[in-house]
Amino acid sequence: MDITAKRRSRRDWIVDTCLFLSAAGLALLTSGERLLITMPQPAWLFGLDHIIAALGCASLWVRRRWPVELALVLIALSTFSEFVAGAMLMALFTVAVHRPPRVSLLVFALSLVAGVVFVIVRPEPGVPALFMWLFGTTIQSAVTGWGLFIRHRRELVLSLRDRAARAEVEAHLRAEQAQLRTREAIAREMHDVLGHRLSLLSVHAGALQYRPDAPAEDIARAAKVIRESAHQALQDLREVIGVLRAPVGELPQPTFADVQQLVAESGQAGMRVDLHDETGGAVPDGVGRTTYRIVQEALTNARRHAAGADVLVSVTGSPAEGLTVEVANGERDAPPGHDGTRPGQGLAGLAERVALAGGRLDHGPTASGGWRLTAWLPWPHDDHAE
């Protein structure tokens, strides 16, 4: 702990003043007692003691800069000066507070040795030397122990502060990760929703482009579908962006019952789609929402890459077997890439969605030149709603 890196605060001034006054008061008290009992011999030692005590007390003002050095000097002086004992005790306290326990205990041991030297050099008439040494040892032990306690308490407070700061940083990182996951979920949702709507727009716009001589009724019908699909795409976009504002769980989500409407919309757009629903029971909301996204992505890809092909959507399952979703389309009868779209990351995102639901996803070409996408989802028995 660096005690010289910062300027002395008001609290530091108060503490230093109190320690100085305590050391000076103890020196004066000892001097008064010495006048009432036996004066030291030779007589000049009494005056020298006062000078040493004054210098020792004054040196406490630099105890923060050189705590160990000052303590060693005062310990050496305490081997023959009794009035410097107060300043020496304050130096022991400073070392215990500001230096590691190993250093503090070493300095404390030297002070005990100095006590032995003092009782030998300046024995007190009528008082056993062992008693005097034990008395001084008790006081020195109490002061050093108090300083070690304060140091430990300060380290504990700093440790708690550091732990709180780390916890705050970790909480901030967790919040950022949660935001990132939310953004990824929003991006996936926007791909699923808008990809379906925009593919409908692309189909009808492509039909108008390749058949500019179509009857006026067909053109009007296609324009109506384009307008309605564009309006619905805007509505879907508003709902998806609403995730950023609405609390979790408040945004309306598709369910298994909406799969039939999804297939109907694709049929209105000119696709030949058949739906076979052979589910044995009410499909849970979570599984139904994933099923909807699977069918939505599969129909979107079929419109993009196999325009004009027949599409079969099959949903089978039960609580005991799980739910199987299969979307298969035949060989396309329109030119590849007629709508100008390029393959995206829809299947990768769909595989991640299915994996998060605990299911499996398989897809690939068929022997007849078409494409099949198959997914299996677990059917929780207690998952009635999310």
Automatic annotation (TrEMBL):
Catalytic reaction(s) noted: ATP + protein L-histidine = ADP + protein N-phospho-L-histidine
CDD domains: HATPase_UhpB-NarQ-NarX-like
Name under which the protein is recorded: histidine kinase
Keyword ATP-binding: yes
Domain Signal transduction histidine kinase subgroup 3 dimerisation and phosphoacceptor: 183-247
EC number: 2.7.13.3
UniProt keyword Nucleotide-binding present: yes
SUPFAM superfamilies assigned: ATPase domain of HSP90 chaperone/DNA topoisomerase II/histidine kinase
Annotated GO MF terms: ATP binding; phosphorelay sensor kinase activity; protein dimerization activity
TM stretches of this protein: 12-31, 43-63, 70-97, 103-121, 130-149
Pfam families, per the entry: DUF7134, HisKA_3
Keywords: ATP-binding, Kinase, Membrane, Nucleotide-binding, Phosphoprotein, Transferase, Transmembrane, Transmembrane helix, Two-component regulatory system
Protein species of origin: Planotetraspora thailandica
One GO term describing the cellular component: membrane
Domain DUF7134 intervals: 9-154
The protein's enzyme class: transferase
